[in-house]
Give the backbone structure.
Amino acid sequence: MHQDIERILFSEELLADTVKKLGAAISADYKDRNLLLVSILKGSVVFMSDLMRSITVPCKIDFMAVSTYGSKTKSSGTVRILKDLDRDIRGCDVLIVEDILDSGMTLNYLMDLLYGREPNSIRICTLFDKPERRSVDIYADYSGLQVPDEFIVGYGLDYDELYRNLPYVGILKRSVYETEEQ
Ligand code: IMP
Ligand code: MG
Protein backbone atom coordinates (compact mmCIF):
# COMPACT_ATOMS: atom_id res chain seq x y z
CA MET A 1 0.00 0.00 0.00
CA HIS A 2 2.56 2.61 1.14
CA GLN A 3 4.80 1.80 -1.85
CA ASP A 4 2.10 3.09 -4.24
CA ILE A 5 2.25 6.57 -2.71
CA GLU A 6 4.33 9.19 -4.54
CA ARG A 7 4.48 11.46 -1.50
CA ILE A 8 2.53 12.27 1.64
CA LEU A 9 0.49 15.44 1.18
CA PHE A 10 -1.22 15.71 4.60
CA SER A 11 0.00 14.03 7.78
CA GLU A 12 -2.26 12.49 10.42
CA GLU A 13 -1.53 15.45 12.70
CA LEU A 14 -2.48 18.05 10.10
CA LEU A 15 -5.69 16.18 9.30
CA ALA A 16 -6.64 15.97 12.99
CA ASP A 17 -5.97 19.67 13.45
CA THR A 18 -7.99 20.60 10.33
CA VAL A 19 -10.97 18.49 11.40
CA LYS A 20 -10.95 20.05 14.89
CA LYS A 21 -11.06 23.54 13.39
CA LEU A 22 -13.98 22.61 11.13
CA GLY A 23 -15.80 21.09 14.11
CA ALA A 24 -15.31 24.26 16.14
CA ALA A 25 -16.63 26.48 13.34
CA ILE A 26 -19.68 24.26 12.83
CA SER A 27 -20.37 24.11 16.58
CA ALA A 28 -20.36 27.91 16.77
CA ASP A 29 -22.72 28.28 13.80
CA TYR A 30 -25.21 25.56 14.71
CA LYS A 31 -26.05 26.45 18.30
CA ASP A 32 -29.82 26.10 18.86
CA ARG A 33 -30.36 24.62 15.40
CA ASN A 34 -31.58 21.23 14.27
CA LEU A 35 -28.30 19.94 12.84
CA LEU A 36 -28.34 16.82 10.69
CA LEU A 37 -24.98 15.63 9.37
CA VAL A 38 -25.36 13.76 6.08
CA SER A 39 -22.28 11.73 5.25
CA ILE A 40 -21.80 10.70 1.64
CA LEU A 41 -20.57 7.11 1.58
CA LYS A 42 -18.05 5.76 1.39
CA GLY A 43 -15.30 8.35 1.02
CA SER A 44 -16.42 10.56 3.89
CA VAL A 45 -16.72 7.92 6.65
CA VAL A 46 -13.31 8.54 8.21
CA PHE A 47 -13.79 12.31 8.09
CA MET A 48 -17.36 11.99 9.39
CA SER A 49 -16.36 9.90 12.39
CA ASP A 50 -13.69 12.38 13.42
CA LEU A 51 -15.75 15.48 12.58
CA MET A 52 -18.85 14.45 14.55
CA ARG A 53 -16.72 13.95 17.65
CA SER A 54 -15.33 17.44 17.35
CA ILE A 55 -18.82 18.97 17.13
CA THR A 56 -20.03 20.06 20.56
CA VAL A 57 -23.67 20.93 19.78
CA PRO A 58 -26.47 18.34 19.51
CA CYS A 59 -26.66 16.70 16.09
CA LYS A 60 -28.15 13.72 14.31
CA ILE A 61 -26.45 11.75 11.56
CA ASP A 62 -27.56 9.99 8.40
CA PHE A 63 -25.87 8.46 5.37
CA MET A 64 -26.34 8.48 1.65
CA ALA A 65 -24.54 6.33 -0.87
CA VAL A 66 -24.19 7.48 -4.44
CA SER A 67 -22.29 6.21 -7.38
CA THR A 68 -20.98 8.56 -9.98
CA TYR A 69 -20.40 6.98 -13.33
CA GLY A 70 -17.06 7.63 -14.94
CA SER A 71 -13.52 6.31 -14.86
CA LYS A 72 -11.82 5.36 -11.63
CA THR A 73 -10.24 8.80 -11.27
CA LYS A 74 -12.84 11.14 -12.85
CA SER A 75 -16.58 11.41 -12.34
CA SER A 76 -19.00 11.89 -15.20
CA GLY A 77 -21.78 13.81 -13.47
CA THR A 78 -24.39 11.09 -13.78
CA VAL A 79 -25.30 10.20 -10.23
CA ARG A 80 -27.20 7.15 -9.05
CA ILE A 81 -28.58 6.86 -5.49
CA LEU A 82 -27.53 3.53 -3.97
CA LYS A 83 -28.78 4.29 -0.46
CA ASP A 84 -31.11 7.12 0.41
CA LEU A 85 -31.54 8.90 3.75
CA ASP A 86 -33.50 7.05 6.44
CA ARG A 87 -35.72 10.01 7.32
CA ASP A 88 -37.53 13.05 6.11
CA ILE A 89 -35.31 16.14 6.34
CA ARG A 90 -38.07 18.74 6.52
CA GLY A 91 -37.20 21.24 9.24
CA CYS A 92 -33.61 19.99 9.54
CA ASP A 93 -30.48 22.08 9.16
CA VAL A 94 -28.69 19.72 6.81
CA LEU A 95 -24.91 19.74 6.58
CA ILE A 96 -23.57 17.51 3.81
CA VAL A 97 -20.26 15.96 4.84
CA GLU A 98 -18.15 15.12 1.80
CA ASP A 99 -14.58 13.92 1.39
CA ILE A 100 -13.57 15.96 -1.64
CA LEU A 101 -15.12 18.54 -3.93
CA ASP A 102 -13.66 17.93 -7.38
CA SER A 103 -15.69 18.72 -10.51
CA GLY A 104 -18.59 19.47 -8.15
CA MET A 105 -21.03 17.41 -10.20
CA THR A 106 -21.87 14.92 -7.45
CA LEU A 107 -22.68 17.61 -4.88
CA ASN A 108 -24.49 19.77 -7.38
CA TYR A 109 -26.85 16.90 -8.07
CA LEU A 110 -27.29 16.08 -4.37
CA MET A 111 -27.91 19.70 -3.36
CA ASP A 112 -30.74 19.95 -5.91
CA LEU A 113 -32.21 16.65 -4.78
CA LEU A 114 -32.12 17.45 -1.04
CA TYR A 115 -33.21 21.05 -1.50
CA GLY A 116 -36.40 19.74 -3.07
CA ARG A 117 -37.21 17.93 0.18
CA GLU A 118 -37.59 21.27 1.97
CA PRO A 119 -35.02 21.19 4.77
CA ASN A 120 -34.74 24.32 6.93
CA SER A 121 -31.26 24.95 5.51
CA ILE A 122 -28.62 23.07 3.59
CA ARG A 123 -24.87 23.59 3.55
CA ILE A 124 -21.73 21.73 2.49
CA CYS A 125 -18.69 20.75 4.53
CA THR A 126 -15.83 19.22 2.56
CA LEU A 127 -12.48 18.16 3.92
CA PHE A 128 -10.66 18.60 0.62
CA ASP A 129 -11.23 20.94 -2.26
CA LYS A 130 -9.75 20.92 -5.78
CA PRO A 131 -11.01 24.34 -6.98
CA GLU A 132 -9.03 24.16 -10.25
CA ARG A 133 -11.13 21.24 -11.42
CA ARG A 134 -14.58 22.71 -10.83
CA SER A 135 -16.95 22.38 -13.79
CA VAL A 136 -20.14 23.58 -12.08
CA ASP A 137 -20.74 26.67 -9.95
CA ILE A 138 -20.68 25.22 -6.44
CA TYR A 139 -18.73 26.10 -3.33
CA ALA A 140 -18.34 24.62 0.14
CA ASP A 141 -19.50 26.54 3.21
CA TYR A 142 -16.84 24.75 5.26
CA SER A 143 -13.69 23.59 3.54
CA GLY A 144 -10.59 22.05 5.12
CA LEU A 145 -7.62 21.83 2.78
CA GLN A 146 -7.00 22.80 -0.84
CA VAL A 147 -5.57 20.06 -3.00
CA PRO A 148 -3.57 20.44 -6.22
CA ASP A 149 -4.82 18.74 -9.38
CA GLU A 150 -3.47 15.32 -8.40
CA PHE A 151 -5.25 12.12 -7.49
CA ILE A 152 -5.08 11.61 -3.73
CA VAL A 153 -5.88 8.61 -1.54
CA GLY A 154 -6.11 7.80 2.17
CA TYR A 155 -8.22 8.95 5.15
CA GLY A 156 -11.30 7.48 3.43
CA LEU A 157 -10.42 8.34 -0.17
CA ASP A 158 -9.94 5.43 -2.53
CA TYR A 159 -8.62 4.37 -5.85
CA ASP A 160 -10.66 1.37 -7.04
CA GLU A 161 -11.85 0.87 -3.41
CA LEU A 162 -8.32 0.56 -2.01
CA TYR A 163 -6.17 2.84 0.21
CA ARG A 164 -9.14 4.14 2.28
CA ASN A 165 -7.47 2.87 5.47
CA LEU A 166 -4.27 4.89 5.11
CA PRO A 167 -4.19 7.24 8.12
CA TYR A 168 -2.58 10.06 6.06
CA VAL A 169 -3.37 11.47 2.61
CA GLY A 170 -0.92 10.89 -0.20
CA ILE A 171 -0.61 11.41 -3.93
CA LEU A 172 -1.06 8.14 -5.74
CA LYS A 173 1.74 7.21 -8.14
CA ARG A 174 0.52 7.78 -11.69
CA SER A 175 1.91 4.40 -12.68
CA VAL A 176 -0.79 2.76 -10.52
CA TYR A 177 -3.64 4.11 -12.65
CA GLU A 178 -2.23 5.34 -15.95
CA THR A 179 -1.53 1.91 -17.44
CA GLU A 180 -5.02 0.72 -16.47
CA GLU A 181 -6.96 3.71 -17.82
CA GLN A 182 -5.22 4.23 -21.17
P1 IMP B 1 -17.01 15.30 -8.28
O1 IMP B 1 -18.41 14.93 -8.63
O2 IMP B 1 -16.12 15.37 -9.51
O3 IMP B 1 -16.88 16.54 -7.43
O4 IMP B 1 -16.41 14.05 -7.52
C1 IMP B 1 -16.45 13.89 -6.17
C2 IMP B 1 -16.10 12.47 -5.82
O5 IMP B 1 -15.05 11.96 -6.66
C3 IMP B 1 -15.56 12.40 -4.41
O6 IMP B 1 -16.59 12.20 -3.49
C4 IMP B 1 -14.58 11.25 -4.49
O7 IMP B 1 -15.25 10.02 -4.24
C5 IMP B 1 -14.09 11.25 -5.92
N1 IMP B 1 -12.78 11.92 -6.05
C6 IMP B 1 -12.50 13.10 -6.64
N2 IMP B 1 -11.20 13.39 -6.59
C7 IMP B 1 -10.62 12.38 -5.92
C8 IMP B 1 -9.26 12.11 -5.51
O8 IMP B 1 -8.29 12.86 -5.74
N3 IMP B 1 -9.08 10.94 -4.83
C9 IMP B 1 -10.08 10.07 -4.53
N4 IMP B 1 -11.35 10.30 -4.88
C10 IMP B 1 -11.62 11.44 -5.57
MG1 MG C 1 -14.49 7.42 -4.70
